[in-house]
Every structure is written in C-alpha cells, then in structure tokens.
Design goal:
Layout lengths: L1 E4 L1 E4 L2 E9 L16 H29 L2 H14 L2 H14 L3 H17 L4 H4 L1 H16 L14 E5 L4 H4 L7 E6 L7 H9 L3 E3 L4 H4 L5 E5 L4 E4 L3 H22 L6 E2 L5 E8 L4 H7 L5 E4 L14 H15 L3 E5 L29 H7 L1 H14 L4 E6 L5 H20 L9 E6 L2 H5 L1 H4 L5 E4 L1 H8 L18 H16 L3 E4 L10 H7 L3 E4 L4 H9 L3 H12 L4 H20 L3
Parallel strand pairs: 3-4, 4-5, 5-6, 10-11, 10-17, 11-12, 12-13, 13-14, 14-15, 15-16, 16-17
Antiparallel strand pairs: 1-8, 2-6, 3-7, 7-8, 9-10
Length: 585
Amino acid sequence: MITLTGIAASHGIAFGKAFLYEVEKFKVIRRQISDQNVEAEIEQFKQAVAKAKREIIQIRDNVAQRMSKEYADIFSAHLLLLEDHFLILEVTKKIKEEYKNVEFALWEVLEMLTKNFYELEDEYIRERAVDIYDIGKKILYNMVERKRVGLEGIEPGTVIVAHNLTPSDTVQIDKEKVVAFVTDVGGPTSHTAILARAMEIPAVVGLNNVTSQVKDGDSLIVDGLSGQIVINPTQTVLEEYNRRSVEFEAFQAGLAKLKDLPAETPDRYRLEIGANIELIEEVTSAKEHGAEGIGLYRTEFFYLNRDDLPSEEEMFKTYREAVEATFPYPVIFRTLDLGGDKLPYHLEEPWNQIESNPFLGLRAIRLCLQHPDILKTQFRAILRASKHGKVKIIIPMISSVEEVRETKAILADVMQELKDKEIPFDEKIEFGIMIETPSAAVTADILAKEVDFFSIGTNDLIQYALAVDRGNEHIAYLYRPSHPAILRLLKKTIEAAHREGKWVGMCGEMASNPLFTVLLLGLGLDEFSMSGVSIPEIKEIIRATTLQEARELLQQALTLSGTDEVEGLMRERLSARFGHLMERA
C-alpha cells in the first residue's frame, strides 16, 4: 500500500481501478526549408488552425448541451487563443525569416508561451499554460495527420491516472465509467479542475509522480477532500474510507440544504458570502454553491497571451454577461492586477522590463496610474456593464491616499465622458479598495474616508506584513494567518472602516478556511468571498455560531502571544462542534 499527497481539486471520495492514460508523444524535428516552400508551409499551418477551430467549436457545442454555456465558454476562450495575432505572427515569422518547417516553428512558439506562463507567480494565470498546450497539440496533430489518443472504451469504475489532463481530455470523460482522476501536475484553479467540479468527479492533482507509482489495474482510493490517494489499500484502510465516504455524502446532503439560506448567526447578525472568480463559466458553480454575488472578479486574463491590449468592447461584452448572470446579486470587478512577475512579456516597453523585486515594483494600480489609458478603458467597460445589473469597482495594491484620489479622479473623468456621450451607467456605483499592504491597513482610518468599502486581500497582506514569500518552500511555514500581528491589522482595518460607516469584505484564502471563520466573525467582517465550493462549509459555521460567542473567542485569541497558541485555541474550541471541518482546515 502506498499513500501519495497532492492537491484536492474536486471534492469527493472514489474507489476504482487505475487506467494509465499516456498521451501519445511524437518528436518534432527541425527541417530547413527553401524559399519556394515558405508559402506552402504557411498554408499548411493555416489549414491546421482552421481544422482545430472546427474541432473546438464541436467540443464547445457538446459541452453547452451536456453542461451549460458558462462551461462551454472555456472553449470559446480557446477559440480566442487560436485567433491570437501573436501566435499566428510568431509562427509565420519563424517560417519566413528563419526558414523553419511549420511543425518546428509552432513547437518553438508553444514552448516559449507555456514557459512564460509557468514562470508566473499567480497560480490561476499559470494554469492557463495547459490551455495553450491543449490548443497547440490540436494544431500539431492536425499537421502531422495523427489522431489523438482518446478516453473512449474504458471500463466502468475507472480512475484515470495521467501526467496531466487538458480541458479537451476532461470533457471526453464518461461519468458513467470514470469515478475520479489523478494527475502529476496541475492546480485547483485550472480549467480541468473547474470542469471536474462541474461534472462532480473527485480529482486530486499535483501528485508529482503518480504516473510512475501506479500500474494499470491497481486499486485506488481517491480522496478529493484531503488531496490524498491510496494505491492498493489494505482491507482496513478500505473500510475506513468507506466509512468516510458515507459520512461525506451525509455531510454534503446537509450542506445542500444551506444553499438558499442566508449566512446569518443565531442572534441575527447577517453577512454576505460571495465567490471569487476569473472566468464567466465559474458563475454557475458559484450560484450552485449559494454565493450571493461575485465578491471578486479577477480581470487579468484579458491581458495575457496577446500582443495588444483588450478593447473596451471586448471587456464590456464579458463583463455584461457576468453581471446579467449574477443578478440580482452584485459583481465586484477588480481592476488590472498585473505587474512585476505577471507582466505581459511580449508587449512594448516599459511593460516587459525586468524588475529585481517585482512584488514591490510596478504592478496593479501603480502600473495603471503610469498608463491611465489602460485604466480608463477598463473603467468604461465596467461602467457600461453597470447598467445591466449591480456592479462595484475595487482597486488593488493601494498603499497611499494619493493613489486613491488619483484613481478616483480618473474614474470621475470617465464618468463625465460617458455622460457627455449619453451612455447610461450606474452613477452611484460603489468604489472600494483592496487592503493588502501594511501601509493601507495602518492608515485604514484615512483611507476609509475616501471610499465606499474595503476588501481585505489576506494573501498579500500576510505576505507583506510577515516578510514571507508564500511561494518559497523554505519559509512557507512562516506564512500564518493566525499570527498576532495579522489579527491586529485586521482588527484595526475593520474598526476604522466601521467608524466611517463603510463595510468590509475579505477575498483572500483566509476567508475560506474554516479554522478562522469564527475569528473573522468576531472581528465584525461584513462579507466573505471565496471559491464557490467553500461557501457551504463557511455558511454552516456562521449559522451555528452567535456573534457574542465569536466576539468572546476573539478577545481570548487577542490575549495570546503566539501563532501556535491562537490556532490551538481555535481547534480546541471548535473541534467538538465542527470536527468534520477542522480536519480539512
């Protein structure tokens, strides 16, 4: 028996036989072509792209019928990538100027694109490399006239084991036969993981070497709750997981009943719970899990994998679709949060400059204030979308009141432009800022006078306040939301906003961790925003905890001097009532 630990990508516990899915590999060989062959190579590329488009349209239409339009939009995004001028121009350039054969030219461009995406710090954006790979392989297979290995013909009770699964692979899965899948690589924000959750198939990703540990036909347990898999389990372990599976199903049935209930404490303290999303297809899942709107709509994907900036019309259409799909609840759009490690590398200077410390450099609102036309275009798209539902705007990476005032002035200019053109929008749209730098938290009393609301981005706030790079495996253990310094910064921020009559939300990972829900409730947080799948668990805790209890526990936690003491207190006080949740906290 072998136990491996990865990342839980889709909840559930499954039992089945391993099917080792190895995508056929072929070697792309470089050939030097002559002048007279250049046009023929380019024409071959165009035909392969056209065929790939037809294939993706067919997949998209099938997904729309089987699931929903929102999930089909994953493949609409693939179509946009296929039409990307940068991809087409770079491949054509290598053929024309370097006399490389079309297969090798495309392979080099794909390698460059995926490498740059994989090097990005933001996990969600990094996962888009899989989409590029998926599209590129379709074109390559078309050019070499080779059919891709599929997932047809597998037996019922199968667990797919693969190095990686692309979205195109995932939508081939027959739920009547496939009980789960596990992969060497990947993360919870990949399109593959999103589709797995939509299909309600348990999945564990990021297992590193599962394909070398598993053989075809091995018995597997896939625990999509803890992120573990067990290879050839003993009878004792099998019985234990059977018990857990029954408990989880009962637990899920109980959570399902909470979907349409408010996030309200027994003593009538009412909160809102929204979802964090980046793509329109995630709206459906958010609503299915009981989200009361979109608490954070990340807008960065529009700016990546392209050689130009997105147009106002392009953004407006997608923003409007999200707003209409979410109504009557609000959508909070975060303006562009690229910079440093996440700059579109192929755009003109100064976009592609290398910074020695990108996390403290030209990023987010700092970048936008240096290039106000980018911010104005996005503001116009958001404001126009506000006519079609409830919309709020939030600005990332604020560190001073001057940045807030300069941004508000740009927004006012855009509003006036729209009025002059008689373009309707919500003139009372709420304007908020992210609290994710220590300077913003410490001056929250000043900033609260300038805005309508705060949203606390704990991922960066904790990182900056504790001087810990959360992606550095050597010091990641120091990244602790329960550090007394973090609790004090949160307390100061929330109290400062409330004194000005402003509401405070939280969209960082801390908001989705059951261990901290009662503390955040005690601090007076008004809104939680998180991944949709986490909403029922957090709602369960809120509905079972009085505000008075939460405040008392917070006061006790604030007297403690160490991080371990705070977490120990929380586990001790909450395990008896929420033990099933604390196990995963």
